[in-house]
Amino acid sequence: MTAETRPVDHVIAAIRAFLGDRITTNIAMREQHSRGEDTTTPVLPDAVAFAETTEEVSQILALCHRHGVPVVAFGAGTSLEGHVTPVRAGISLDLSRMTAILDVSPDDMDCLVEPGVTRHQLNDHLRDQGLFFPVDPGSHCTIGGMCATRASGTNAVRYGTIRENVMGLEVVLADGRVINTGSRTRKAANGYDLTRLMIGSEGTLGIITKIRLRLHGIPEATSAAVVQFPEMRGCVESVIQVMQLGVPVARIELLDEVQMACCIAHSKLDNLEALPTLFLEFHGSEAGVAEQAETVKAVVTEMGGLGFAWAADSETRNKLWTARHNAYWAAIASQPGSRGVTTDVCVPISRLADALLGAKEDIEASGLSAPMVGHVGDGNFHTVILVGQDDPAALERAWELDRKIVARALALGGTCSGEHGVGLGKREFLEQEHGMEALAVMQSIKAALDPKGILNPGKMFRN
Ligand SMILES: Cc1cc2nc3c(=O)[nH]c(=O)nc-3n(C[C@H](O)[C@H](O)[C@H](O)COP(=O)(O)OP(=O)(O)OC[C@H]3O[C@@H](n4cnc5c(N)ncnc54)[C@H](O)[C@@H]3O)c2cc1C
């Protein structure tokens, strides 16, 4: 290395020796990797590297570790809290080309995949075997990214989040060593749980290169329904009762009247009105589904629900859930040229009405537009606070609103993030949520696994 060569330039040259043109300093590619789906100020990485094997990831990390160069893992870049923005530049390590489904075991109901596989790709592959993978964020994200953010989706109320559906991982550590975590058994009491440590670590502790996932059988019967309410309280109270009764709903999603107006316009849900609404789905045997639906119908009727509109055939069901998965884009499309600051609080189910109705009051007081949508069976809901692309004052007001909604959720025993993660946007709440001592333990784990602080620096912790 010559005196004037920056360490990162040396590392880029060394990586080029084995990746060839799969490492690039092309400006358009660097811009594409400068931020995720959020309002963070973009920062260009020095280069973008597309790895295709564990061996390549290991070599890249060993080089970056030796020369103290930052590495930010990049899946599909759909995260919402500044996770992928390379705040200290360095290498954006793109794993989206690692798309092999390595093994599916119908007998054990598990599979082994590379991190760039998407849930759509996996479910298309599994369909003929009567199996499915249930974790379904409303984005075209990668399974590696989902593990790294501890993601969930509309099915989590029945099937759990990614945390409950990952059995083990292959992880490349900061210095290039490769470890395997977990096991294929349904139970294991065999040492510290490194799988759970990596799940939700947001690329700060290691790079996930293989994932063993738990799979589920496609249910014998599925039916979906929509219920609308004249006002929000009845809608939320219905959810609380359904959950407290222990009805094993597969999905129970709430959209407020503002979000419904956006979805009706965006997804052509012409038979529905802009009212607080629940989208529901039931899985099981024919008799089980009918029984669940009857119980829920009785609850929502008592709470003032305006009838139960069935979506029994798969085409109507798909239209409904596609509209739900596109809710974020429907919100953004309602104010052309806007971006969204997304809140993600989660509270114990008994406190859901306080959290949600309180958040609606905060939104009203702020004067901002913020459609609301929630995986309410888990006590988790989002507001997409809409701000103009170039309106720093509105952006500051949006963050203030976010802080208010989080403060209420924390006071109710909840968390600042049910599923999106910390990134840059939620770092300020961690101390309040976990306490100084727990945060110090987290930082000592980070220091032990990544002593030079090269993995996604600046994230999770404020210093
Ligand atoms: C329209 C929309 C809807 C969404 N709906 C949901 C939802 O319902 N539920 C939900 O949970 N989230 C949701 N999200 C957020 C987002 O899709 C998830 O956080 C997703 O898990 C991110 O995956 P990704 O592949 O895009 O990861 P990226 O954004 O590329 O990366 C996210 C983080 O993971 C790290 N990372 C990525 N791959 C790896 C790897 N292989 N090893 C180690 N670290 C890695 C990155 O460094 C970064 O810190 C939504 C986002 C959008 C835009």
Automatic annotation (TrEMBL):
The main enzyme category here is oxidoreductase
Domain spans labelled FAD-binding PCMH-type: 41-218
Query: Which cofactor is essential here?
Result: FAD
Q: What EC numbers are recorded for this enzyme?
A: 1.1.2.4
Domain of life (superkingdom): Bacteria
Please name the Pfam families in this protein's record.
FAD-oxidase_C (PF02913), FAD_binding_4 (PF01565)
Q: What keyword terms does UniProt attach to this protein?
A: FAD, Flavoprotein, Oxidoreductase, Transit peptide
Matching InterPro entries: FAD-bd_oxidored_4_C, FAD-bd_PCMH, FAD-bd_PCMH-like_sf, FAD-bd_PCMH_sub2, FAD-linked_Oxase-like_C, Oxid_FAD_bind_N, Vanillyl_alc_oxidase_C-sub2
Indicate the family of this protein.
Belongs to the FAD-binding oxidoreductase/transferase type 4 family.
| UniProt protein name | D-lactate dehydrogenase (cytochrome)
Naturally occurring in which organism (per UniProt):
Pararoseomonas baculiformis
